[in-house]
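User: I'm curious whether this sequence folds into something compact or stays loose and floppy. Could you predict its structure so I can see for myself?
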Amino acid sequence: MTTKTVHPGLVLAALALGGFAIGTTEFASMSLLPYFAKDLGVDAPTAGHAISAYALGVVVGAPVIAVGAARLPRRVILTVLMAVFAVGHLLSAIAPNFQTMLISRFFCGLPHGAYFGVAALVAASVSPPEKRAQSVAMVMIGLTVATIVGVPLANVVGQWIGWRWGFVIVAVLAALTALSVWLYAPRVPADADASPLRELSALANGRVWLTLGIGAIGFGGMFCVYTYLADTMLAVTHASPAALPVVLMVFGTGMTVGTLVCAWAADRALIPAIGAVLLWSAAALALYPLAIGSLWTLMPVVFLIGCGGGLGAVLQTRLMDVAGDAQTLAAALNHSAFNTANALGPWLGGLAIAAGYGWASTGWVGVALALGGFVIWVVAAIDARQQSRLALAAAE
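Assistant: Here's the prediction. I'll summarize afterward.
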């Protein structure tokens, strides 16, 4: 197969399947937290460390793999990453104690960022330039659809059969992704000029760091609320466990809508779209503490919070513009940033809960994080405007 015979639809579908597998584990592990916490003999804030361990695996794995695999074809990188992902989830499924669970979750997180980063580049390569953000969004749609279908399914399986089977489901999905990517991804050789040193040049780029900072802080609010959503529903809303998959589907629907709308907006006005998503998230998170008393008020607010998930594809596109020759590392670091948020949000939320501020406090922590990301966006927007003025002046 050559790049001329590649079918973009099949490529995007294969890449989205990987996003579906990753999204299922990233969010299902949060929704299964009350169940594996009980089985492994730890309380909810302690069990939240397993979520953070996965996120830290992403943070570590994304740059290390992106740099180390710089000379490999992207198709090979993606296939190997999903094979490793499958093995890691089988290890999570058989974890005999919480310490082993922490190690296995860290291992599972290692391929996550590099997969999404490389997958985004492959998706952009098979699509028209004017639809880059929407093509990247199609990869992310796999993740958001996972929050509608995969996460509720894993939660139901976790409740009725056992939480370990939720991780088995992810292992099967990852294996199917590895096969699909191997069959359909473009068989393009690695860039002859690619090197670890060239990829590392991204670390000297201030605009890359500003973009990553927006995600690392601004996305933390959503993860803060989502991690403890199941516990909040059981302890404060007094909802039936059967209602949890429904609320998770509502959240996933919000993420899907948000990803599509934000990608459409980003292809028209990238920088303003980023700021708008952050303000939207802050407003939605501020409503959360007021809404948790009733299932009927909680669900629409959860939908609004989910819409803020569109930030992922938007920032991924921004990194393509500012990364220069270090595309792979910058793209992978985007998911390190988001999983820094995934570690930071649950950690800060757990501190607030442990300090006695209650389950509702996760919403206020989330507001602070979203606004923190907005502050970084303001700096990035001013820099982008100055860069644009300099470019116009040079052209004249």
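Summary: The chain has a mean pLDDT of 86. The two ends are 45 Å apart (CA to CA).
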